[in-house]
Protein backbone atom coordinates (compact mmCIF):
# COMPACT_ATOMS: atom_id res chain seq x y z
CA UNK A 1 0.00 0.00 0.00
CA UNK A 2 1.29 3.44 -0.88
CA UNK A 3 0.86 6.23 1.65
CA UNK A 4 1.35 9.91 0.88
CA UNK A 5 1.05 12.74 3.38
CA UNK A 6 0.54 16.32 2.23
CA UNK A 7 0.50 19.49 4.32
CA UNK A 8 -0.47 22.97 3.21
CA UNK A 9 2.30 25.32 4.36
CA UNK A 10 1.78 28.86 3.03
CA UNK A 11 -0.53 30.12 0.32
CA UNK A 12 -1.06 27.13 -1.95
CA UNK A 13 2.34 25.56 -1.31
CA UNK A 14 2.00 21.93 -0.23
CA UNK A 15 4.80 19.78 1.17
CA UNK A 16 4.33 16.13 0.20
CA UNK A 17 6.10 13.07 1.60
CA UNK A 18 5.99 9.31 1.39
CA UNK A 19 8.22 9.02 4.46
CA UNK A 20 11.37 8.54 2.38
CA UNK A 21 11.17 11.44 -0.07
CA UNK A 22 9.77 14.95 0.13
CA UNK A 23 8.53 17.08 -2.74
CA UNK A 24 6.16 19.98 -3.21
CA UNK A 25 3.21 21.17 -5.21
CA UNK A 26 2.01 24.70 -5.81
CA UNK A 27 -0.13 26.71 -8.18
CA UNK A 28 1.17 29.12 -10.79
CA UNK A 29 1.34 32.80 -9.93
CA UNK A 30 -1.68 33.60 -12.14
CA UNK A 31 -3.74 31.16 -10.04
CA UNK A 32 -2.66 32.71 -6.74
CA UNK A 33 0.31 30.47 -5.99
CA UNK A 34 4.02 31.14 -5.97
CA UNK A 35 4.92 28.56 -8.67
CA UNK A 36 7.54 26.88 -6.44
CA UNK A 37 6.49 23.42 -7.58
CA UNK A 38 4.39 21.65 -10.18
CA UNK A 39 0.62 21.97 -9.90
CA UNK A 40 -1.41 18.86 -9.01
CA UNK A 41 -2.23 18.04 -12.65
CA UNK A 42 1.47 18.26 -13.54
CA UNK A 43 2.27 15.88 -10.68
CA UNK A 44 -0.37 13.48 -11.98
CA UNK A 45 1.06 13.62 -15.51
CA UNK A 46 4.53 13.15 -14.04
CA UNK A 47 3.38 9.95 -12.34
CA UNK A 48 2.01 8.59 -15.62
CA UNK A 49 5.12 9.67 -17.53
CA UNK A 50 7.47 8.07 -14.98
CA UNK A 51 5.42 4.86 -14.99
CA UNK A 52 5.45 4.76 -18.80
CA UNK A 53 9.24 5.15 -18.97
CA UNK A 54 9.80 2.50 -16.30
CA UNK A 55 7.33 0.08 -17.90
CA UNK A 56 8.97 0.47 -21.32
CA UNK A 57 12.46 0.03 -19.85
CA UNK A 58 11.44 -3.12 -17.95
CA UNK A 59 9.78 -4.61 -21.03
CA UNK A 60 12.72 -3.82 -23.32
CA UNK A 61 15.13 -5.32 -20.79
CA UNK A 62 13.13 -8.54 -20.43
CA UNK A 63 12.76 -8.92 -24.21
CA UNK A 64 16.37 -8.00 -25.01
CA UNK A 65 15.35 -4.99 -27.11
CA UNK A 66 18.25 -2.56 -27.56
CA UNK A 67 16.85 0.78 -26.38
CA UNK A 68 19.19 3.77 -26.15
CA UNK A 69 16.74 6.28 -24.68
CA UNK A 70 13.13 6.56 -23.63
CA UNK A 71 11.24 9.77 -23.04
CA UNK A 72 7.57 10.62 -23.06
CA UNK A 73 5.56 13.79 -23.10
CA UNK A 74 2.05 13.98 -21.69
CA UNK A 75 -0.32 16.91 -22.23
CA UNK A 76 -3.51 17.48 -20.25
CA UNK A 77 -6.41 19.61 -21.38
CA UNK A 78 -10.05 20.08 -20.57
CA UNK A 79 -12.18 20.16 -23.68
CA UNK A 80 -15.88 20.76 -24.03
CA UNK A 81 -17.66 17.42 -24.43
CA UNK A 82 -19.25 18.62 -27.67
CA UNK A 83 -15.75 19.03 -29.13
CA UNK A 84 -14.41 15.67 -27.94
CA UNK A 85 -14.18 13.20 -30.83
CA UNK A 86 -13.29 10.22 -28.58
CA UNK A 87 -16.04 10.82 -25.98
CA UNK A 88 -19.31 9.01 -25.38
CA UNK A 89 -22.51 10.54 -26.65
CA UNK A 90 -23.62 10.81 -23.01
CA UNK A 91 -20.70 13.08 -22.07
CA UNK A 92 -21.58 16.58 -20.97
CA UNK A 93 -19.62 19.54 -19.68
CA UNK A 94 -15.86 19.35 -19.89
CA UNK A 95 -13.80 16.21 -20.42
CA UNK A 96 -10.23 15.73 -19.24
CA UNK A 97 -8.09 14.58 -22.14
CA UNK A 98 -4.50 13.40 -22.03
CA UNK A 99 -2.28 13.03 -25.08
CA UNK A 100 1.00 11.16 -25.11
CA UNK A 101 4.04 11.32 -27.34
CA UNK A 102 6.67 8.59 -27.08
CA UNK A 103 10.29 9.08 -28.03
CA UNK A 104 12.14 5.75 -28.06
CA UNK A 105 15.57 5.53 -29.63
CA UNK A 106 17.33 2.26 -30.27
CA UNK A 107 17.86 -0.64 -32.58
CA UNK A 108 14.60 -2.50 -33.06
CA UNK A 109 12.34 -3.83 -35.77
CA UNK A 110 9.05 -2.29 -36.88
CA UNK A 111 7.27 -5.10 -35.03
CA UNK A 112 9.17 -4.28 -31.82
CA UNK A 113 8.41 -0.58 -32.31
CA UNK A 114 4.69 -1.34 -32.57
CA UNK A 115 4.85 -3.57 -29.49
CA UNK A 116 6.65 -0.86 -27.48
CA UNK A 117 3.84 1.53 -28.37
CA UNK A 118 1.29 -0.99 -27.07
CA UNK A 119 3.27 -1.62 -23.89
CA UNK A 120 3.42 2.12 -23.17
CA UNK A 121 -0.37 2.15 -23.01
CA UNK A 122 -0.32 -0.58 -20.38
CA UNK A 123 1.66 1.11 -17.62
CA UNK A 124 -0.05 0.43 -14.29
CA UNK A 125 -0.68 4.08 -13.39
CA UNK A 126 -2.33 4.78 -16.73
CA UNK A 127 -4.47 1.64 -16.40
CA UNK A 128 -5.56 2.76 -12.92
CA UNK A 129 -6.64 6.15 -14.24
CA UNK A 130 -8.46 4.62 -17.21
CA UNK A 131 -10.40 2.22 -14.99
CA UNK A 132 -11.32 4.94 -12.53
CA UNK A 133 -10.64 5.16 -8.84
CA UNK A 134 -12.88 4.51 -5.85
CA UNK A 135 -12.12 6.86 -2.98
CA UNK A 136 -12.83 5.64 0.54
CA UNK A 137 -12.55 8.91 2.44
CA UNK A 138 -12.32 9.15 6.19
CA UNK A 139 -12.75 12.86 6.81
CA UNK A 140 -11.84 14.32 10.18
CA UNK A 141 -12.43 18.01 10.72
CA UNK A 142 -11.35 19.20 14.13
Map the helices and strands:
Elements: E1 5-8, E2 14-17, E3 22-25, H1 40-63, E4 66-80, E5 94-107, H2 110-120, H3 124-131
Antiparallel strand pairs: 1-2, 2-3, 4-5
What is the CATH C level class of the largest domain, in words?
Answer: Alpha Beta
Low-pLDDT stretches = none
The CATH topology annotation of the largest domain reads as GMP Synthetase, Chain A, domain 3
**How many beta strands in the DSSP annotation?**
5
Tell me, rounded to a whole number, the average pLDDT: 91
* CATH homologous superfamily grouping of the largest domain: K homology (KH) domain
Number of helices: 3
How would you sum up this structure, described in words?
- The chain has 142 residues and is α+β, with helices and mostly antiparallel strands.
- It has two domains: 1-37; 39-142, GMP Synthetase, Chain A, domain 3, CATH 3.30.300.
- The chain is 30% helix and 29% strand.
- It has three helices and five strands, in the order βββαββαα.
- The strands form two sheets. It has a three-stranded antiparallel beta sheet, with no helix packed on it. A two-stranded antiparallel ribbon has the order 4-5.
- A hairpin with a 4-residue loop joins strand 2 (14-17) and strand 3.
- The chain is globular, with a radius of gyration of 18 Å.
- The mean pLDDT is 91.
Amino acid sequence: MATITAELTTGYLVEITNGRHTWRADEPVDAGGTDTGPNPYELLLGAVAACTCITLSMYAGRKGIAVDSISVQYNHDKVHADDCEECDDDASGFIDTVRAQLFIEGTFTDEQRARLSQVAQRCPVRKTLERGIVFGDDVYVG
